[in-house]
Amino acid sequence: MTASEPLWPAAVSERAATLVHGPARSAKVLGTFPTALYLQVGGHARVLPVVTPDGLRLPTALAVATSLPRVGWGVQPGDDVVVGGGDVLLPGVTIRAVRTWHPRRVPTASVATFLGAPLAPLALPWRAASRVLTQGLTGDERSLPSRVQELVGRGPGLTPSGDDVLCGVMLALRLHPRGSDVLLGRLWRAVRPLLATTTSLSAALLTEAARGYAVAPVVRLTEALAGADRAAPTGSARLTGETGPAGSTLPDEVAAAIREVLAIGHSSGADLLGGLAGCLDALDALDEADSADLLGAPDLLVHSGRPAMTPRSLQ
């Protein structure tokens, strides 16, 4: 950097700190947008999102503290830039990581409840497909590879719809008490070999979802769903039009979080929400079946019937 070049301070995700602070290396520009720059640094799924304050802060993002000037990023898809030593070197500007931020993970609900119930009124794309996929996870695994293959990379854009759906399913497996390391690992083993068949950005987001990380609006929604059954019924909000039938009511916190998620991208938010809801539907059905069995056998010792939850790590 020359003395005349501007310096933009930024906060780097702890998920990308090693990448940014490591040795200098060449990075390929994957996409440029007014609020985001996507860089492939190394392998296919190693993507560094550089985002402005108005951009969607992905779990591995380098978040710039200042808004992007009208001149833009100064690069085009296919260009090479340098990342390393705490800097991203663009033509005429250096973006420097001066602090670290900590992305949030989707929680694991501690209360036995029907987590998908608040989402039941919503008409969502891919909901049925993700429900069938989850049923395959919890039952006969033989169809799982073909079902996953039908989703990975399906659809246009930097994050194809099928990948957004899979992200939603993996996050739901972490959220729901019926989820487990076993089910999440089973799905990830089917997804991981196919990452090279989708875009680099989508492969990176799938990897983060498998580890429980998502953008803040999605995490807020899962937190709201996890706490919806315990929250006092102080009010409800309506979601109408495409998101559900007129007159549908939801807890205020859940409704606000849904709106945030649906606002993500052209269809990414709706696709991810469809994957999340369909998976919760299937896992809730297992709870419903258990409840029916217990009602039919009152002399049995009542227990949750859920697999023991352990700290999840796919590192």
From TrEMBL:
Cited InterPro entries: AllH-like
One Pfam entry name: AllH
Protein name in the entry: DUF2877 domain-containing protein
Organism: Pedococcus badiiscoriae
Source species taxonomy: Bacteria, Bacillati, Actinomycetota, Actinomycetes, Micrococcales
